[in-house]
Amino acid sequence: MRLKISHRTEYRYDAPLQYALQRLRLFPRTCKTQTVHSWSLAVEGAGEEVRYVDHFDNDTRLVSNQGESTLIGIDAWGEVETFDTAGVVGENRGFAPLWLFEQQTPLTAAGGGVRELAGSIGEGSELDRLHKLSGAVGACVAYTAGATHAGTTAEEALNQGSGVCQDHAHVFAAAARLMGFPARYVSGYLMMDDAIEQAASHAWAEAYVKGLGWVAFDASNGISPDERYVRVAIGRDYRDAMPVTGIRHGWAEERLAVSVSVEQ
């Protein structure tokens, strides 16, 4: 399947910024599940300082504001051909070793709820247990837009029983690590069946299975990602794979707007 994607992130300020530095992880890379045919990035109100591939193998750009800007607009767009591999991504790439993905992070630290969830998964093959975990996460954390925020932990989302795709990925990763699997967070795009325009990008998780490598699980939709998914960035949790993150100096009030479109 060939997907056309457009993603705009816009920051508006009520006063000129003294300084802002943004880290962008908005460039998908060709891998087993996808071929990037074209991709472009344009930034308004800021200029590129440096680009590099980070230790998770993410294409990363740093941009800083130019002059006293009241608007920073970031547009990413392109076409990606995708393949249904039943969620199998393959062997580990990048400089980050597998053991790094076995460690807890502040967003995925396991409390009593995550430990109980991981302990409830019965016997079976590694793949069977991971599919059961994905289903259990979706059942325990109802998808509810606006129920959580960027700093919500896996334990908090599980305890309140609601969240969004970010929370599903965090809960899955936290429990999978307790079960002995390296696990990681994935940010990217999903072509939805009923809508082209979306309010945000998507997220899911991957676990490492011996003999297969990384295998993807989208607990939000109860499936392993197929040809409707485009992988962009990975990390131990959301903070490692955020599409846009940064710092700013000044007293300006910030307003953020994000729009995403994904279509065949």
From TrEMBL:
Under InterPro entries, the record lists: Bac_transglu_N, Papain-like_cys_pep_sf, Transglutaminase-like
- Superkingdom assignment: Bacteria
One Pfam annotation reads Bact_transglu_N
The Transglutaminase-like domain covers which part of the protein?
157-221
Name of the protein: Transglutaminase domain-containing protein
**Species this protein is from:** Mesorhizobium marinum
Lineage, opening ranks: Bacteria, Pseudomonadati, Pseudomonadota, Alphaproteobacteria, Hyphomicrobiales
